[in-house]
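Lab meeting, item 3. Inverse folding demo.
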């Protein structure tokens, strides 16, 4: 470069170093940083709100899959129905029939269809259980 220009730039630099910065410079810099931080502070909130809204809309638009209640298996009047707890047990050498009274509402858990659709749910009915010599129930039926 030119020696005169280099010398002039060095002198300008040295003079500027000795001068303090203007008093308003620090205030303007702080205001600019605050404004920048304020705009960045709300960005994650908006991103989260938009993501949550999208998930909510997606969840609400999904088709609902409902499972229809299974009717109890058909049974003949007075026929024993195998109990789920008796499946896989060895055949008993002797059996006994044990009669109990159960609420009509409790019958479906044993796989036994409730007779009389118009009857009260809290009503008691006689139920026969086929019990093996090991004391475990194998089948059940509504007693006639």
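The presenter then showed the designed sequence:
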């Amino acid at each position: 470069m030119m020696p005169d220009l280099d010398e002039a730039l060095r002198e300008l630099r040295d003079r500027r170093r000795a001068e303090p910065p203007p008093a308003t410079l620090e205030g303007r810099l702080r205001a600019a940083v605050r404004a920048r931080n304020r705009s960045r502070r709300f960005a994650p909130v908006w991103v989260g709100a938009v993501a949550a809204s999208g998930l909510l809309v997606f969840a609400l638009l999904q088709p609902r899959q409902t499972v229809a209640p299974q009717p109890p298996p058909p049974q003949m009047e007075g026929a024993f129905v195998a109990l789920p707890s008796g499946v896989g047990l060895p055949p008993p050498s002797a059996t006994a029939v044990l009669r109990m009274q159960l609420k009509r509402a409790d019958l479906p858990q044993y796989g036994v269809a409730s007779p009389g659709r118009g009857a009260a749910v809290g009503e008691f009915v006689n139920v026969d259980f086929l019990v093996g010599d090991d004391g475990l129930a194998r089948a059940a039926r509504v007693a006639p």
